Amino acid sequence: MPEYKKGFTLIELLIVITVIGILAGILVMIINPREYQAQARDARRLNDILSVQTAIIDSLANGVISLTDTAGCADCSSNIGTEEIDGSGWVKFNNIKGRGLIDVISVLPIDPINNNTYYFSYYSDGNDFELNAVLESTRYQTNAQRDGGNDNDIYERGFNLNLK
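== Type II secretion system protein GspG C-terminal domain-containing protein ==
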């Protein structure tokens, strides 16, 4: 009786590899890793904007800073301005006691992408302020629509959400 070798043929291996490839492709389409990465960046954006808002409110309440009018400010955004917390960074204010925002945050955050599309911006009329962030994920876009501001495409925080 002839002895047969046990194993897989080349055709069987190609079929299995093809099926695995198709299933992996379907899984990637279902999981959508780009959306999850965008959601992670948006979660960071929301946290960063809230941190800056808290720092401004706390510093105002303690008389450490006062707001200044930023009309015509060319570098009141994270993609152009610096991360300094003394009033010279992308968040502008009068640094009354010389401490700036150091009591609450050590540096102004910048957007995770920080380009001409995704960046943080700051506006003030000297009495009120507004912080803005452009969100990229579909999951967090509802935050921009429900924040009470005047732009449904931008996440807005601050005392007056109609400054921009």
